[in-house]
Here is the input.
Amino acid sequence: MAGAAPHEGSAKGKKKALDAELNLVPFIDLLSCCISFLLISAVWTQIAGLQVASSGGPQDQKQEQQTIDVKLELGQSGYALTMAGARIEIPKVNGKDGPGYDQKTLVEKLKTLKASLPDQSSITVQPEDTVAYEDLVATVDTCVGQQLRDVTVAPLN
Amino acid sequence: MAIVTPGKRPGVRIQSSRVFAKKFSRGKRSTYAGLMLTSLVDMFTIIVIFLLQNYSATGEILFMSKDIRLPDAVHGAELERAPVIAVSPDAITFEGKQIALTVDMKADALAIPELDDSLRDERRKWDESHTRDAQHPFKGLVHVQADKKIPFRIIKRVMISCNNAGYGNINFAAMAKGVSTKPTTAENTPH
Here is the structure.
């Protein structure tokens, strides 16, 4: 019959089986070693960095573009966005953990700013002394999210 | 007479017969259990692929401390190797070495002198080791890892110390919610 497997143990002597058995043991050993190494050297906590410049830091030569001086103050009452002589107050809103900074309104204002000045990439964040690191990071994160990547942090007073 | 196992016994002729001897042969089960290795190898392969995908070649730059609870950030970038200043509610440390106590930071002074000295030492070491390395100029990058409730009054003093020592690019550490792949380098840093 066509395609049939050859007989084993025919009258003229035994034929070797065509199916070769792969020895999986070294492969399993290798995989076990890989898993052990990767588990030991794995970094489970993902920490990111928000890069800012401090007010006295080295100045870059990128200020030739059409930009304005934008300042974002973080105070006890909320945000105060100052640009081109105008000052926009964004008061704190009540959240789950009490009054907090209104990130949503800030995003809208920054979007408007970015729409009118697409080249604008710098902003100066000026927190008060009592502002928590958490709020500062959240504000810088919001600014970076709105493509204002050149964030300078300077004390308010 | 020889002692034999009770039961049916073939005769001498039948025992030597190819056809009839099989009836009397008692099939013993093999003591070796065949283990199915295919699924095990599949599982190992999936684990290795998963771990390789999550593998970070840079390793752990910032070490998590129990005292420091980092805030979350969505638009944070990947970190690169730089000196680390950790500010916990108890102490301020530079590269794991305690510099000052946080409770002592209530005074309205500008910089932290001990941190100034440590950063200047670090800068000097860097300058010495990169004297003839023009391809890698000093970026002035430093990581600040602070607890989420630390007030800016203390962060400000740390930043002033960094500035005094020439470290103008400060990286605020945060827990990544969705890290972008672009690493933080001096080229994409703010001025």
